[in-house]
Amino acid sequence: LKDNFNVAYRRLQNLLRSLQGDKEKYSMYNETFISYLREGIIEEAKDNSNRVAKFYLPHRHVWTPSKSTQLRVVFDASSHAKDELSLNDFRTHLYTMVADIQKAFLQIRLPESHRDVTRFLWVDDASQPATGSNLKHYRFCRVPFGINASPAILNQCILKYIEGSQSEISQELSNSLYVDNVFLEGKSPDDLLHKYTESKRLFSSIGMNLRDYLSNSAHVNIGIPALDRASSTEIKVLGMLWNAMEDTISLKCGEKQANKISKRTILSQINGCCFDPLGLLTPLEEDELSWKAIKSKIIGFQVTLPRKVVQNNNSTSHTLSVFVDSSKRAYACSIYVTTTSYHGVEESRLFTAKSEIAPINKEQTIPRLELLSIFIGLGLVESTIQKINVKFEKISIFSDSTIALCWIQGNRRLPPIASNIAEIATDPIWPTDRVSNYTKLLRIVAYSARFIRKTSKDKYLPLKGEQLQTVTPSTREVMDAEILVIREQQAIFKSQLLMQNKQLNVKTDINGLYRRFGRLQNADLDFSAVNPVHIPKQSKLGVLIASHLHNAFVHCGINQLLYNIRRRFWISSDRALCKRTLKHC
């Protein structure tokens, strides 16, 4: 882990410039660090060159005027120098309550040996340059928010204490803890008030403070002291707005206008407006509207649904209905829960949904996409049953595809491969899509070709003397295997269609391979450099070749890798292929 001081210092200078015109925000920013120092959350870092590692965390502020803490300091642990290294339960009970752990991450102490990798920079006086004695080096004594491991560390610490306690709600707390949010359910308001007292006591015993309690029961809210009660009846629950008084959850798209209207901006408006773990924003209208009309519908769009979809008591029965469907571009499913009361009154409500985009690299038929929609529907049913404590008397999946349903209900038993010689002949199996190494691919094909030569009665691939004297495939056999693989990939992806474009000047050579014959026929270059072999862009073979050459030339850069590829092969978008190869190396 290399020192990140220069990056953090530049980020600090940019931050100070942005705060110069807003003294209120700077004062709140500075007060945050002063309180951290006072509470022992951070300490001033001493310059110790003997430390194994030092790392500086750049930071910025998040301004939320609607919250009690309007300015929040966020640290960026992913910053580095260039080239260096459950909600468903919340909807199943009549009475529910949520709470928040105050400064949860800052309650976990960091070991002394780990503190120097959580350094950050600040200044005593923003009006003076960030140099000399005005520049302060701090480091965290507690787990900072902004590191991707922080939530896992927090959960492990809390669960360790909760599971070791003798509290009657320890199991419920273990199952309903999400980072620094706690969800509690009860059969009655008095039950929730008892759980409030018990949860408050349990977290106090481990040095943490549960606050901002809010319930959908007015009786519970009145019974909670004002110091622990949420100031508003509307709060965010995992990204969704919960109105406790109306007991509804809402998803709302922002009203930010985009200068350019495109598919990307519209999808970002939908997916970026809020966190949607239940998939409730999956349905979209199929009307033939222009992009501007779609954009106008999205801006300020809000959907409100009842929180409670399951009335979990002995006087009701529950059934689960799954509806699946697909089109050429996507397939989706939705789950509805139907509750039947003791008097026979039925009520159905949307519980969750899911959608997937159809594969773009391989076109699928509508029946196969319908089958995929059934598949994700089954997966969603399984996860729903596991996550909520409700017994369903009946589970039904509805699909309008008779072909997909016939495939599922059919009892066909396909013959084994050994007995299905016709299948072997009509559906050859090539290892191109199953092997991740180009050399291994050629050796597999070479061994297979040798087997065919030795077992073929008509000697379709005639044996040669030097090929019988080696156990491993000879150079000639590997070259023949490469020709076989390239020819097979060109046939699959129809390279012959390139011959229709006369400007490309694509022709076949003596081995039946499609080559692009260039204009430098008299140049002092190899035949393959002047007339490279076409490798289809959609084929995985190009990826294997690029990876093989990248490793063969000692992890060379983009330009050298591009040069080595073009010495023999012609691949569309080969520079982008080289960039991907280096990125995944």
Automatic annotation (TrEMBL):
> Taxonomically, which superkingdom?
Eukaryota
The residue ranges of the Reverse transcriptase domain are: 86-238
InterPro entries, per database record: DNA/RNA_pol_sf, Retrotrans_Pao, Rev_trsase/Diguanyl_cyclase, RT_dom
What name goes with this protein?
Reverse transcriptase domain-containing protein
Native species:
Heligmosomoides polygyrus (Parasitic roundworm)
Lineage of the organism: Eukaryota, Metazoa, Ecdysozoa, Nematoda, Chromadorea
